[in-house]
Amino acid sequence: MKNKKSKIISILIITFLCACYTIKNYDKNKDTFYLIKIGEYILNHGIDFKEHFSFIQGLTYTYPHWLYSVYVYIIYNKFGFLGVHINNIISFILLILSIYMVNLKVNKNDFLALFVSIISIFILGDFIVARGQVFSTILLFLEVYFINKLIETGNKKYIIFLMISSLLIANIHGTIWLMFFIFFMPFFGEQIIYLLIKKKNRKRIEIGNISIEKVNNIKLVFVAFILCLLMGLLTPSRICYTYVFKTMLGDSQKYINEHQPLQPIKEPWFIFITSIFFFIKGNVKLRDLFMIIGIIILSLISVRYICFFYTIVLLYLTKLLVNEFKNKKDNTLELLGNIIFNRAKVLIPLLVLIIIVGIIGLKKNLKGDYINKKVYPTEAVEYIKKNLDYKNIRMYNDYDIGSYILFNDIPVFIDPRCDLYFKEFNKKGLDVFDDAINLYKKITSYKEIFEKYNINYALFNKNDNLYYIIKEDKDYEEIYKDENFVILKKKSKDDYSINIKKESNN
Q1: Which domains does the chain have, with CATH numbers?
Q2: Of the residues 18, 139, 201, 204, which has the maximum number of CB atoms within 10 A of its CB?
Q3: Residue 197 and residue 206: Cα distance in Å, rounded?
Q4: Band of the pLDDT at 278, cuts 50, 70, 90?
Q5: Cβ(18)–Cβ(93) under 8 Å?
């Protein structure tokens, strides 16, 4: 009964805080706009592996997030951006409840499970946006739990859970799918090392604080691995098996923020959690050590993997801490749980504090509109759609606003779909992204690049240095300006003849 009471309280606290700390606007998330548009296209026309939203001809698109695109479009079509925001809240709740329930099952401690969940809310809040990564993070976190349960119990139902998870990730977030198989490696690694160094029939070998054990039911784990690997064939996306390798060979790691190496100084939680491991003196399984070190390395290589650090590594940290307390026969964690959940004098002030913290977060996250006019060219887009032949113009735009322009049915030069604009991914061999970067690296080459893509309009944020360069070019004229954005048009021959007549009359 006590355990049931603590669960109900914990679930209510998690639900409340997740609702309060889900970000409303799209300032940091530029993908949702194109995901919605692609979902609309798939429902109306199907998947044809062609690109329909850029004015650059001959590009091919692999639809790596097709299922999530359809899902988020259906929500947007029925309920607008409010519906998308509510979906983000639900996704956040599902993620944190997964963290809570797995921690509770692994560590069997109500207080620690709730504490880790609350910490996770504040760490992971920025990750909760309308992208497939929310669901893939949940599924990959549960994958590690399912593998451990398969090893512990030998119950084949966990193979089914793993296969379903692999299939969903392949269709929801195909670009991250190969991560699913990296999480099998620590278990295979320990088994191989155990077989190499085992003596007689010993099932456990200790080297310092590290224990090397026989991995039970390893054959079932291998069967699960192979079956999950086949799930990549059950998706229209053509890049499940190759995406990671293509991005590593290409330029995306140089320019795309989420593909770049982690800067630990910008992630204090990463430094704090990593440093705790140095103070834990208890015994650790080799497979757990492989998992922790592997995810730390992945996070340092690319910031996109940091969400796995904050879910999976945090789970392993709490597991090690619980074992440390048990080894010392210290029941402090249990006492804390009993005090918090069973004493009204402690519980009521704590709930009041949580409500205050939640309200502070709610006020912050509900400010402003879903679409920030300083970040996205909302008024400029309205002007384009009212005054120009917008479906046929060839307009330069930068990477950050491309998704919003595409969302409004205006053909784009570039947008955040990097698996479309890098030469490694399109059959035509065009490196549009590299050309877009060169506009700023070699500022005098804009004419060459604009001519290459036959660009006749350009939409700039006023803070863009390139705008001030092209503004001085007599071949271009300013046709629109608001507080944040400006549109330039390349003059036609008729424009030049009109100017000559005006000059002669003067």
Answers
A1: 1-30+62-129+343-370 (no CATH), 132-330 (no CATH), 378-505 (3.40.50)
A2: 18
A3: 11
A4: confident
A5: yes
